[in-house]
Please model this.
Amino acid sequence: MSKPIENSSSVLLSLSKVVLLAGALLVSGFASAVLRIEITDTAGVQDAIPIAIVPFANSGGVNVDITGIVGDDLARSGRFRVLPAAEFSSAPRTTAEVNYNDWRGTGAEYLVIGKIEQSSAGQFDVQFELIDVLKQEQMLAYAPNAQGVVEYCCRYRVGEQQLRLTAHTIANQIYEQVTGIQGVFNTQFAYITAAGLGKNKRFALELADIDGSNVTRVLEISRPILSPTWSPDGEQLAYVSFEFPGRTAIIVHHLARAERRKLISIEGINGAPAWSPDGRRLALSLSHRGSPDIYIVNVASGQLTQLTNEPSIETEAAWLDNSTIVFTSNRSGTPQLYSKTVGDRSAARRLTFEGKYNAGATTSPDGSTIAFIHNEDGNYRIAKLELKSKVLEVLTSGAQDESPSFSPNGEMILFATQENGKEVLGLVSIDGLVTQRISLANESVRDPAWGPMR
Model:
């Protein structure tokens, strides 16, 4: 991986990724395997909440391990410690069968029970219950039945293809009920892969569920792709493509319709797109008038509005809200982060002062925090800055960490990194206590973008 630039004579910051894609992602071929996710640091798990998930009663015909998916989701969050099923002395199927003394003895604070029944050909009823063991009460429950018994909380009637997504939905409900924070286990992320050599090199844009499953190839072409970014409704991706001779282009890609539209491709650099929260505009970096500046483009009409006009490099915009942009500029001599209000003629406000390199920001969903690349002792790591307190905290420990992307609930950050010389993705919790690696067996993966809630 090439080191990010540090001076104004270098090429545009965001285009250093082209070198990475074109030169570093050289593998033998595209793979269709599930992405492998591994928890690499469990410092946060010491204080994790112990939860017991009894294997769901199964009437047969189900090939999806719903119990395992729910448990894996919760464990990867770092907030839960899922107890081994081998330690359970009983397997209750209804709340009436729960012996609270037994479950307190396991150390479990919460208990999940459930069942799966085939209701018709290809249709399944999935039900579950979340129980507070210490309070001896159901946290999610239907009203009592005719016999005064409360059984299961939630019922999903789904086809076989929806069983995995249903498991993620159950994990979301458990996560939110216990922590008060919305779960993101049914979200997706986009990323770039590349394979082959020379004229045979191919680049792909892919999607995967956040647990690494359900990998979907959106696009495969012979020229580089980079900087994918999701529309707020999750229906479209915008990205930079080098497929057109002589210049880059910003492409808007409607996923369900598989329709691609060249939004803008003008002389010079067309780079670093970022959707506005209202989904009607993209911020991007253009250099057709000289040095790169931040522009806003109306997605429907293509109308351009220039936001910055400086001799320095202005790039990598992100939206704090519908009227405020955070971006990278080296106007002070080194790359730093600035904010500016759209339509306001006043000068941009500098946000980062600690260190000589702070670039490539992403914003938390509530706009309170930014995450970015920070140079620490020659290493490029993911850091966060809380805008109110102005406290900067380094979250990762790699040497070439970049491309941060917040989860939709603001609890995790997805980023690109290296492991044993291979391009992989990383996940780090917002407190830095839990880290994970996401890899693909025969490919390198880059430029991640976490999708919205769905």
In short: The chain is about 10% helix and 45% strand. The radius of gyration is 24 Å.
